[in-house]
Amino acid sequence: MINTLPKTRESITHGDIVFIYVWGVIRHWGIVTSAGTVISNSGRHGGVIEQSFEDFSCGQVPERVGYLGSLSPWDVEQRARSMLGVRYSAVTRNCEHFAYWAHGEEPKSPQVSTVIMSIGLALTGAAILSRAR
User: Fold this and answer.
1) Taking the mean position of all CA atoms in its chain, how far away is CA 81?
2) Which of 25, 40, 85, 94 could be a cystine partner for 30, CB 3.0 to 4.6 Å?
3) Does residue 126 lie in a domain region?
4) Model confidence, pTM
5) Maximum distance among all Cα pairs of the chain, rounded to whole angstroms
């Protein structure tokens, strides 16, 4: 079954990374396949899954992150498919780590880094305030 990709602000093509918002602030990333499905590493589903564009979208219009690496779309899709069934970890193996890795890049999660930095700053601020009293 071939899914029709929705119209968005930018054209979405095979190998692209797309995202939707979860809880209004977290970006959930996925990789568009040649069949128009999306492969993503989903905490809700417990790991790497392939689903229809509609199921991935959860009623939203996904936005395009783009194309991160220099691998061909076919290589990106093959790498993504090789991870189907691998378990999810919010800190070390989430949807961003997965998308970077599938594109041949070093796995990383800017969202996790931002959260960790924010927690560190909050704890530092709390420690400074408690000493000032």
Assistant:
1) 15
2) 40
3) no
4) 0.79
5) 65
